[in-house]
Design a protein that fits this description.
Largest sheet: 10 strands, mixed
Shape: globular
Distance between the termini: 20 Å
Number of helices: 16
Number of domains: 3
Length: about 500
């Protein structure tokens, strides 16, 4: 079990950090933090091994990016920031300690950036990134200009971080390594509590106890929001209310504080009626499909309502919600085949995403290209992941992405593909990245929907799939993002953020 300890949030500010260097700065979480510091006018450098799309934006803001890991990268640096993906014996970590530099985990550096603000922290087993994005857009629409750091980029905005002028700071709080326990939120939003990260927590009971510990860190003048439809969230609410804490719930359950009713999800989006304290808030509409998207949006509406912000602002923001990159992201179309990208890797979020993609596919088939994320999760939740993948019509499975993990005999995707209930001809394990686009192009036909799903590297395959499909007719793919350069998925190991 991971027993890492982090320093609780205190009086340290971002400006106290001096010249900041981030190891693995291309990872989504790390690049967002770097962007935040740069927009605050702080000197930032970072080291990477691969030219990730986020790096161009950091350079444009004045960041110095070293495309190698070297001890000389730390010259002139005051504070070194690392993520849980960076091993303690990393050469820059070792050198930073030898020089006596301040060394902070990403969460500790983020806590320093939040000093003096009212933090809205979004936690949960899944749905965090989308929910954090929705809360951010609702607050922006209300005119309060929040700062934010999100574990993804809001589509069309192209950024996962911003230094705002207002009193609120919206942050995605990561439970995977217990680091969310250093935050001191004014508002805590917990989307769900399900078994995951059992390498850290051991069992669900310990995970639930830690979420309760996180919720207890909420400012007494603030409040806690949980999902009434989620069993773990409901148990958490009952525990905290018994302690006299201010807890509000949302969902379709009859006893939810924000009650959702008449929810409808289609390929065009999701809509539902919202009611709180006997007052109708009217119809909430989202242009992205999925009942889980509706649930995520309800937490944002509830937070805004409890903060005294105009309900109309929430309705307008959600009606224009553009989605989040890697969360049901449409990559493009080629030869009559739609290609999406989706970050889901936990079986519950996979099931929700694949059911929604079924709605989009209509009469077409659903082909899933899946890269599992972490060996321990693939092992511990193999049956549940296999059940989720069984929703597909065809499955192309890549090897597990597990930087720093040692594969034991019988572990990995070869075992997982056998557990999926699809007939042998409708599922295949490919151990070569370059073989996957070829295999997909061989299997799909016009009218089908393809989704790349799972670990971070798989997001780079969407454009390669579109190119392979376009090559069948000699045409060009429409709607690609231009991120389709050839990639070695194992090369991303040191960049996770």
């Amino acid at each position: 079990m991971n027993t890492a300890q982090f320093t609780p949030a205190g009086t340290l500010t971002a400006e106290d950090l001096g010249r900041i260097h981030l190891i693995g700065v291309g990872g989504v979480g790390m690049s967002g933090l770097a962007r935040l510091f740069l927009t605050r006018g702080l000197p930032v450098s970072g080291s990477e091994l691969r030219e990730w799309p986020s790096l161009a934006g950091l350079r444009a803001l004045g960041g110095t990016i070293h495309m190698s890991h070297e001890v000389s990268n730390l010259d002139g640096v005051d504070t070194v920031v690392y993520s849980s993906a960076i091993p303690q014996d990393h050469l820059e970590m070792v050198e930073a300690r030898r020089r006596g530099l301040r060394v902070l985990h990403r969460s500790e550096a983020l806590a320093a950036a939040m000093t003096g603000r009212r933090t809205l922290a979004v936690a949960g087993t899944h749905g965090k990134t989308t929910t954090t994005s929705m809360v951010t857009m609702v607050l922006q629409q209300a005119g309060v200009d929040p700062s934010f750091v999100i574990g993804g980029e809001i589509s069309e905005v192209g950024s996962g971080a911003h230094h705002g002028t207002g009193e609120y700071f919206v942050v995605e709080a990561d439970e995977s390594d217990r680091s969310f326990l250093i935050y001191r939120p004014y508002v805590s939003i917990i989307t769900n509590v399900e078994a995951d990260h059992l390498n850290t927590y051991g069992d669900l009971a310990n995970l639930e106890a830690t979420f309760a510990e996180f919720a207890r860190l909420t400012d007494p003048d603030g409040f806690i929001i949980t999902c009434a439809d989620d069993p773990g969230g409901r148990r958490l609410a009952e525990t905290l209310r018994a302690e006299g804490r201010r807890v509000y719930t949302y969902g379709e359950s009859a006893d939810a504080d924000l009650r959702m009713s008449e929810m409808v999800s289609s390929a065009q989006g999701v809509r539902y009626l919202a009611e709180i304290d006997g007052r109708s808030l009217g119809e909430i509409r989202l242009p992205v499909p999925g009942r889980h998207m509706g649930l995520n949006s309800a937490s944002a509406v509830l937070a805004a309502y409890l903060l005294g912000l105009p309900v109309e602002a929430g309705e307008a923001a959600l009606a224009a919600f553009p989605g989040v990159r890697r969360r049901f992201e449409r990559k493009g179309v080629a030869d009559g085949v739609l290609v999406y990208d989706e970050y889901a890797y936990h079986p519950t979020s996979m099931t929700l995403a694949l059911r929604t993609l079924r709605e989009v596919a209509g009469d077409g088939r659903l082909i899933v290209v899946f890269q599992p994320y972490r060996l321990y999760r693939t092992r511990d939740l193999q049956a549940e992941i296999a059940d989720a993948l069984g929703i597909a019509d065809e499955l192309v499975l890549l090897e597990v992405f597990g930087p720093g993990e040692l594969r034991q005999p019988g572990e990995g995707s070869a075992a997982l593909v056998e557990a999926v209930s699809l007939p042998a001809g409708q599922k295949i394990f490919v151990d070569s990245w370059d073989d996957a686009p070829v295999e997909v192009a061989r299997r799909v036909r016009p009218g089908d929907v393809v989704v790349t799903m799972g670990a971070p590297p798989i997001s780079l395959m969407g454009d390669q799939l579109l190119d392979a499909l376009a090559a069948r007719t000699g045409g060009a793919a429409a709607g690609t993002t231009g991120l389709g350069a050839a990639v070695d998925p194992d090369g991303a190991a040191s960049t996770a953020g």
